[in-house]
C-alpha cells in the first residue's frame, strides 16, 4: 500500500535538490572544458566559472577528476525468460548494479512470451520494471514472429508508447526469414524507427549443432565451433542488403568478430546506414575459456555470437570503435547462475546464453580503451553514452553535459583502481567474466536525475527512482543527421526558463498518462494511470527515501515539447 509523501518544510524545499560540482574536467564527446556545474531539481541549470549558487547547496570537489555524462547501456536483458531459464538480475538489482558502475540509464529488450502480443508485452514490461528501476530506462521491442497484427501494433507502440526501436533475430527458433525481415525493416522505416538485428545465420547453426553433437562434441567448446565468424558476418551482410532495399537505418547488436565488423565498415563506405554495437565482453575477453577444464568456467562465458578464439579480436574491436566503424558499447547483460548454466552440461546448445557486464562496462572500457591508450576520454564518452543517446533519440537530454540536460553525471577518478570480482559486485549472478581484472578508473560519485547515488564510492540506489523514458521516432542522428548540430545544448551559461518548461512537460505527461484507461484488476495492466502529484517535495539526497514505499505518483513519462517557450538553448524539451 502506498503512504503519503512527507511534507518538507518550505525553507528546505529547494536546497536539498541543489548540487554544485567544482574544479573538474567536463568531458563531452566534442571536447573537454574546466567549468563548474550547478544542478537543481534533477537537471543541469548552469555551467561556467564564478556561478551564482544559492545558499545551502551541497558542493562536490572534483579536482583531478573527470566529469562524464552518465553511461547509457543500450543492451540489457533483466529478468528475461530465455532458453528454459530466467536471467537472475531483475530490474532492481540490474539497475542498482548499473549505477554502481557509472551507468545512469539502460535500454532493455521487451520480449513477448509465446502467444503474447507485442502491445501486451510492452504493458507487462512496464508493470514489472516501473517500480523496480533505480535509474531511467527505455525499451526496445523484440519481434519473435511477423504478422499483420505485429505490423499494426508496431505503429501503436511508436505513436502512443514511446518505442522507437525493434529487434529482429536471424538466429534461434524464433528467427525471421529474409522476406519477414524485409517487411519488418520496411515498417520500421515507415514509422521512423530503428531496426536492430541479432545477426547470425540460424539455419547453419542448427545444422552445425546436429553435426557436432553426432560427433560426440557435447561440451562448451562446441558453442563457438557451431557459430564461426562467417556465420555472423554472412548474416550482418544479409541484414545490410535487406535494409538497403527499403532504406531502413540498421543497428547491429553485439558485433563480436573482426569479419562482422569489416562487413559493417564496407557497408558504411557504401553509404548503407548501419551502426554497430560492440559488447564489453568482446573488448576484454577472447575465446580461451573454451579450453578451460571447468564446465562452470567455460559455460559462464557462453553468449551468442560467441567470444572469438582469435586472440587479436578484442583489440581489433576497440580499434573499430576508435575509427567509428562501430559506434556503441553495450553489455548484453543476461545473467544466469552456475546452476542454470548446468542445463547444458551434456549438450552445449542448451547452455543458457548470456554474461554479465552492466556494472563493469564503464570500468572495463576505460581500462581497455583509455588506460591502454587506444581511445581518449571524449571517444570513451561517445561510445559509452552519447552515441546511444543519439541513435535512440535521447540526446541531448541524455548523453551530454549541457545546460538543460538531465543531471545524470559520473565523477570519474582515473587514478583510483579496483579489482573486479563476483564476491564484491552488486549483481545477483554468482559469476563474473571479468573476475580478477584490475581497472584504473573508478566512479567516485554517480548522480542520477540530480540525486547522488554513489557517494564517495558508497552505493545508495533507490528502488523505483528511475523513470520510463519515451523515445520519439525519427531520431535526427539517424534520419536527419544535418539537424543534430542544432540540437546541441549550450555548454556554458544559465537557463532559468527550464523550470517552466519542466512544469509544462509535467502537465502534458500527466494528462497523457491519465488518458490511458486503467483496466480492471483482473486484466493484464496498462501502465498505471498516475494520480496527481501531491504537494510537498522529496528530499532526493536522503538515502532513506524510497519511492517504492511512496505514492506511485513520481513516475511520469517524458513527453517532448517540440516548441517550448524559452528559445533555442532549451529547444529539446
Ligand atoms: N547474447 C546472448 O547470448 N544472450 C542474450 C540474448 C541475445 O541477445 O541473444
Ligand atoms: Zn542481447
Automatic annotation (TrEMBL):
Enzyme class name: hydrolase
> What is catalysed by this protein?
5,6-dihydrouracil + H2O = 3-(carbamoylamino)propanoate + H(+)
E.C. numbers? 3.5.2.2
Cofactor(s) needed, names only, are: Zn(2+)
The similarity annotation says:
Belongs to the metallo-dependent hydrolases superfamily. Hydantoinase/dihydropyrimidinase family.
Its post-translational modification remark reads:
Carbamylation allows a single lysine to coordinate two divalent metal cations.
Origin superkingdom: Eukaryota
Q: Which keywords accompany this UniProt record?
A: Hydrolase, Metal-binding, Zinc
In its UniProt entry, the species of origin is given as Dendroctonus ponderosae
Instruction: Spell out the Gene3D superfamilies in the cross-references.
Output: Metal-dependent hydrolases (3.20.20.140), Urease, subunit C, domain 1 (2.30.40.10)
Q: Is Metal-binding a UniProt keyword of this protein?
A: yes
Kindly give the CDD domains that the UniProt entry links to this protein. Answer: D-HYD
Name under which the protein is recorded = dihydropyrimidinase
* GO terms assigned for molecular function: dihydropyrimidinase activity; metal ion binding
Which residue positions does N6-carboxylysine occur at?
Answer: 167
Q: Where is the Amidohydrolase-related domain?
A: 66-453
Q: How does it assemble?
A: Homotetramer.
Give me any GO biological process, just one: pyrimidine nucleobase catabolic process
Q: Which GO terms describe its cellular component?
A: cytosol
Amino acid at each position: 500500500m502506498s503512504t503519503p509523501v512527507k511534507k518538507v518544510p518550505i525553507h528546505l524545499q529547494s536546497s536539498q535538490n541543489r548540487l554544485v560540482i567544482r574544479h573538474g574536467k567536463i568531458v563531452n564527446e566534442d571536447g573537454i572544458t574546466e567549468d563548474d556545474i550547478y544542478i537543481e531539481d534533477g537537471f543541469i541549470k548552469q555551467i561556467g566559472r564564478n556561478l551564482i549558487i544559492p545558499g545551502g547547496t551541497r558542493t562536490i570537489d572534483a579536482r583531478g577528476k573527470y566529469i562524464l555524462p552518465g553511461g547509457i547501456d543500450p543492451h540489457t536483458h533483466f529478468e528475461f525468460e530465455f532458453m528454459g531459464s530466467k536471467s537472475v538480475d531483475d530490474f532492481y538489482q540490474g539497475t542498482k548494479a548499473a549505477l554502481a558502475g557509472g551507468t545512469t540509464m539502460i535500454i532493455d529488450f521487451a520480449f513477448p512470451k509465446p502467444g503474447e502480443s507485442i502491445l501486451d508485452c510492452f504493458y507487462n514490461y512496464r508493470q514489472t520494471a516501473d517500480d523496480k528501476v533505480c535509474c531511467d530506462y527505455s525499451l526496445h521491442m523484440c519481434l519473435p514472429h511477423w504478422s499483420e497484427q505485429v505490423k499494426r501494433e508496431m505503429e501503436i507502440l511508436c505513436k502512443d508508447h514511446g518505442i522507437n526501436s525493434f529487434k529482429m533475430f536471424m538466429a534461434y527458433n524464433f528467427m525471421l526469414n529474409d522476406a519477414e525481415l524485409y517487411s519488418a525493416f520496411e515498417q520500421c522505416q515507415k514509422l521512423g524507427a530503428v531496426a536492430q538485428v541479432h545477426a547470425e545465420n540460424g539455419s547453419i547453426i542448427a545444422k552445425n549443432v546436429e553435426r557436432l553433437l553426432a560427433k560426440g562434441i557435447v561440451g562448451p567448446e562446441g558453442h563457438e565451433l557451431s557459430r564461426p565468424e562467417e556465420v555472423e558476418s554472412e548474416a550482418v551482410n544479409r541484414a545490410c542488403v535487406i535494409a538497403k532495399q527499403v532504406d531502413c537505418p540498421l543497428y547491429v547488436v553485439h558485433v563480436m568478430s573482426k569479419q562482422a565488423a569489416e562487413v559493417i565498415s564496407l557497408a558504411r563506405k557504401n553509404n548503407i546506414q548501419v551502426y554497430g554495437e560492440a559488447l564489453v565482453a568482446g573488448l576484454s575477453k577472447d575465446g580461451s575459456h573454451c579450453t578451460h577444464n571447468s564446465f562452470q568456467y567455460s559455460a559462464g562465458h557462453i553468449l551468442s555470437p560467441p567470444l572469438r578464439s582469435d586472440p587479436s579480436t578484442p583489440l581489433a574491436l576497440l580499434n573499430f570503435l576508435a575509427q567509428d566503424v562501430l559506434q556503441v558499447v553495450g553489455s548484453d547483460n543476461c545473467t544466469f547462475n552456475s546452476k542454470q548454466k548446468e542445463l547444458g552440461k551434456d549438450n552445449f546448445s542448451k547452455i543458457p546464453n548470456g554474461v554479465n557486464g552492466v556494472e563493469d562496462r564503464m570500468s572495463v572500457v576505460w581500462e581497455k580503451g583509455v588506460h591502454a591508450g587506444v581511445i581518449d576520454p571524449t571517444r570513451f564518452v561517445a561510445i559509452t553514452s552519447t552515441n546511444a543517446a543519439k541513435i535512440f533519440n535521447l540526446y541531448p537530454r541524455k548523453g551530454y553535459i549541457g545546460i538543460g540536460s538531465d543531471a545524470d553525471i559520473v565523477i570519474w577518478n582515473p587514478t583510483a583502481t579496483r579489482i573486479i570480482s563476483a564476491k564484491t559486485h552488486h549483481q545477483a549472478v554468482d559469476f563474473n567474466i571479468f573476475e580478477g581484472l584490475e581497472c584504473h578508473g573508478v566512479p567516485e560519485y554517480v548522480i542520477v536525475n540530480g540525486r547522488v547515488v554513489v557517494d564517495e564510492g558508497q552505493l545508495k540506489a533507490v528502488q523505483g527512482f528511475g523513470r520510463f523514458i519515451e523515445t520519439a521516432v525519427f531520431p535526427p542522428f539517424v534520419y536527419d543527421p544535418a539537424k543534430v548540430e542544432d540540437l546541441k545544448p549550450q555548454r556554458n551559461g544559465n537557463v532559468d526558463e527550464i523550470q517552466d518548461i519542466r512544469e509544462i512537460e509535467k502537465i502534458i505527461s500527466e494528462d497523457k498518462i491519465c488518458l490511458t484507461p486503467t483496466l480492471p484488476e483482473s486484466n493484464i495492466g496498462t501502465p498505471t494511470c498516475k494520480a496527481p502529484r501531491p504537494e510537498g517535495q522529496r528530499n532526493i539526497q536522503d538515502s532513506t527515501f524510497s519511492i517504492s514505499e511512496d505514492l506511485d505518483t513520481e513516475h511520469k513519462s517524458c513527453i517532448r515539447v517540440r516548441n517550448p517557450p524559452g528559445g533555442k538553448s532549451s529547444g529539446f524539451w
